[in-house]
Design brief:
The chain is of the alpha+beta class and 477 residues long. Helices cover 32% and strands 19% of the residues. The protein has helices spanning 2-14, 53-65, 79-82, 99-109, 112-123, 126-140, 162-175, 200-205, 245-262, 339-352, 413-426, 428-431, 454-466, and strands spanning 25-30, 36-40, 74-76, 96-98, 187-189, 194-196, 209-217, 221-230, 233-242, 278-281, 284-289, 309-310, 403-410, 435-441, 444-452, 472-474. Strands 2-1-9-8-7 form a 5-stranded antiparallel beta sheet, with helices on both faces. A 4-stranded antiparallel beta sheet has the order 14-15-13-16. A hairpin with a 4-residue loop joins strand 5 and strand 6. Helix 5 packs across helix 6 (126-140).
Length: 477
């Protein structure tokens, strides 16, 4: 008997912790449609670890958008938050720090003290915040998840599933796209220090990877919810119970490859249904409903009052429908297209468009003459009558226009500029006056419209997504 006991203790000391893996579960989803492409033990309730912080930050974004708190609010750190075990930012009890720095620390470094401070700032206590997390999870369709804290450290009853975390990851991408860039930052300024991303290895090594969240505890193993975009395809892969960081990343890469192989190139985009806002400003219930003139929306930075307030979300556009275009396919211009052809095409459509009573117009519709001081943007390699004039895009001069939208990433600047031009001509109602901007990155050229208000950017994305055009909002942060 003594020999058996000695052998057991000897093996326990020699076997590495990573080999004593937690139960394995996985799911792969086409983010555009929500279709499940692969699942294994996807409904088994397991420890989510720091995947929990996706929900913590989802609620933080919700609270900011609905005026409960602002990114510049100074949060006073409690002794409870400061005492959380690592990973942590290193907050001190009584210290005041802006919410935006706490958000960056929780998203990038997975700081437990920052996550707790966020929950306490929004709901007054971590227990109250956990109740809100559970209400939100239920509204999102996470049927087998129960939260007990804001950070994800192991606690009795704090459980989730691969399916539920994949659902949450999809909502993180599409419900608050203006903040999604946080999840891909390899480093971030967290106020008191610069922090590094816990998943920078996968972000650097897997083409198209841009988030989302890692998690590790001894009970959970190595967890990860990852998303990657290639062309017009976006895939989410979730793994619970990895044996090590390296093996987990390898498995996630394998699952993402499987997802891109199984996902169709073109698919009808179905945005996940954003749950109704049922926040709680430290005990005072706030329920969002359709905007009315007598119920103004709370502005960022203002505390929501204990009355029904209006939501900034637009569920139905009362604007006229977009002008018809000959091609009903998604707005993607090939490299062989030419700027003059696009202009002629759109102007021809405008000239032959039927009048309101259905009769053909008696005269051609002539485009409005552009002011002499503004020259239309064109790719550098497209010849123009004169290259002496500085080529600029239309600038916005009105105040508060710090938002933008992204309409895709393309292999060349030429293609991105043509897509911007064609999109601007087809969606003049919301994009008129915006700045067309192509941003070069490691993975291609992002086509952006900048200089919009938040409401205009949101409406533009909704109208473009209704035509199956990929669109993400770009926030001022």
């Amino acid at each position: 008997m003594g020999l058996y006991l000695f052998t057991f203790i000897w093996l326990a000391l020699l076997v590495p912790l990573s080999a004593m893996a937690a139960p394995y579960a996985a799911m792969v989803m086409d983010a555009r449609s929500g279709k499940v492409l692969h699942a294994r033990n996807a409904d088994t309730r397991l420890h989510p670890a720091s995947l929990t912080k996706m929900m913590t930050l989802y609620i933080a974004f919700e609270a900011v958008q609905n005026g409960e708190i602002s990114m510049d609010t100074l949060v006073k750190v409690s002794a409870h938050a400061a005492s959380e075990p690592p990973s942590k930012l290193g907050l001190r009890a009584g210290q005041k720090i802006k919410l935006r720095y706490l958000v960056r620390a929780a998203a990038v470094k997975s700081a437990n003290d920052a996550a707790t401070a966020i929950g306490e700032a929004i709901e007054g206590s971590e227990a109250a915040f956990a109740r809100r997390m559970n209400r939100t999870a239920k509204a999102l369709g996470m049927t087998r998840t129960s939260f007990r804290n804001a950070h994800g450290l192991t606690e009795s009853g704090h459980l989730s599933t691969a399916r539920d975390m994949t659902i949450l990851g999809r909502h993180v991408i599409y419900d608050y796209p203006m903040y999604y860039n946080l999840w891909s930052r390899k480093t971030a300024d967290a106020g008191i220090k610069t922090v590094s991303h816990t998943n920078r290895r996968l972000l650097s090594s897997y083409r198209g990877a841009d988030g989302i969240k890692t998690g590790y505890t001894r009970a959970a193993g190595f967890n990860l919810v990852a998303s990657a975009e290639r062309g017009r395809e976006r895939v989410i892969a979730t793994v619970f119970g990895g044996r090590s960081t390296a093996s987990r990343n390898a498995k996630v890469a394998e699952l993402l490859d499987l997802g891109f192989k199984r996902a169709p190139t073109r698919v009808a985009f179905r945005s996940p249904r954003k749950p109704p806002y049922r926040g709680s400003a430290k005990g005072r219930t706030v329920i969002a409903e359709a905007p009315t003139a007598s119920k103004p929306v709370a502005k960022p930075g203002q505390r929501a009052k204990s009355v029904r307030v209006a939501s900034a979300a637009v569920t139905r556009s009362l604007r006229p429908q977009a002008r018809p275009v000959p091609d009903t396919a998604p707005l993607v211009a090939s490299v062989q297209d030419d700027i003059e052809k696009v202009l002629k095409e759109v102007q021809t459509v405008a000239a032959v468009a039927p009048s309101a009573n259905g009769a053909a117009p008696t005269a051609s519709v002539k485009p409005v003459i552009r002011p002499a001081r503004v020259v239309a943007a064109a790719p550098r390699d497209v010849p123009t009558p004169s290259r002496k004039a500085e080529v600029v895009t239309r600038l916005s001069t009105s105040g508060g226009r710090h938002w933008g939208i992204n309409v895709g990433r393309y292999p060349s600047r030429f293609t991105a500029e043509k897509v911007l031009l064609k999109t601007a001509l087809a969606e003049t109602a919301t994009l008129d006056g915006s700045l067309r901007k192509v941003v070069k990155g490691k993975r291609g050229f992002d086509a952006n419209f900048m200089g919009l208000t938040r409401d205009t950017a949101e409406l533009a994305c909704k109208r473009l997504q209704a035509r199956q055009v990929t669109c993400f909002m770009i926030g001022p942060s």
